[in-house]
Amino acid sequence: MRHAKIKKLVSEYIDGELKNNIELVKEHIKTCEECAQLFRLHSLVRETLKENTIEVSPYLFTRIQAKLKERKSQQPLWDYIIGFSKELAVVLILIFMLLLGIELISSRSSVKIEEAILSESPSIQKVISSGGDLTKDDVLELTLSNGKRK
Amino acid sequence: MNKQFETLDEVEIVQLAKDGDEKAFEFIVKKYQNKVANLIFKIIGDASIVEDLTQEVFLRVIESLKEYKFGSALYTWIYRITVNICIDEIRRRQRSRAYSLSDVLSQNPKAEPSHSHVEKTVEQKEMREIIEEAISKLPPEYKTALILREFEDLPYEEIARVLKIRVGTVKSRIFRARKLLAEHLKEYKDLLK
Questions:
Q1: Which of A126, B56, B116, B140 is least surrounded by CB atoms within 10 angstroms?
Q2: pLDDT tens-digit series, residues B80-95
Q3: Angle (nearest 5°) at CA B76 between B74 and B78
Q4: Domain range for residue B92?
């Protein structure tokens, strides 16, 4: 295997993640200065990172608590709405369906009323069917029929 | 730390915290606060903001605890939040030009490492400083993967879960980070001997 390919495996070998070709990489590191440097670099980086650590203040949790209270008190109305977004969506869908139902029922009943009016008044049917273009005889007939109905 | 939680399983403690138990949340904070703080310190490299960012991490943890589904280990989830906050901070600094132009350029993965014609010796600078400086110059995505491996000792699979990337990407990021570090450190001829 060529150096460039083995070099990529060296990093995995260093991390103990290499599953195959372990012996090959081990042997390569012994003879290749560049790959041996990667190995030494890993130790140096590891030591350096582990050496310089910090500790947080013992009051961190108290600060977090205070910040949480502050955020809650400043929480705008919109956050509450977002917090209940699922419930709000269900309520809105129910309201929409209810309004849609009311609309459908009322439109059906108005059609029925119209149909009833039309069937009960032949004069209106006549006007509609003639497209408003009535002869003198038609007007006379309608006037007489209305007079009879009254 | 609160002793009543030491006998409990972490899943139970998280469930209690999810249900609003403040003591359970306190236990989680105290268990992970130093790990989170150090991860931030290593990624950002600025001790002055570590405490504030650690606080921000745990505020985000408590605020999104309802969304935690126990699918991954708690520390993986907390580390993911930590890394996201660090990346936000790095971007914020880049935007506000708190970083110098050379720092920003060095964070570009395509940027070539600098080569000095004058070879320096390790005695000129303290070794730790040299390594820390070289790490700070790595692109954030390479640096984060390397720190999770070298400092946190996380296996590639866990790093992949924290960073939400494939294991193959973790491998290549760590390899490239080491390659770039070696390039940066070439000028210190004694360092890697």
A1: B116
A2: 999 999 999 998 988 8
A3: 70
A4: 1-98
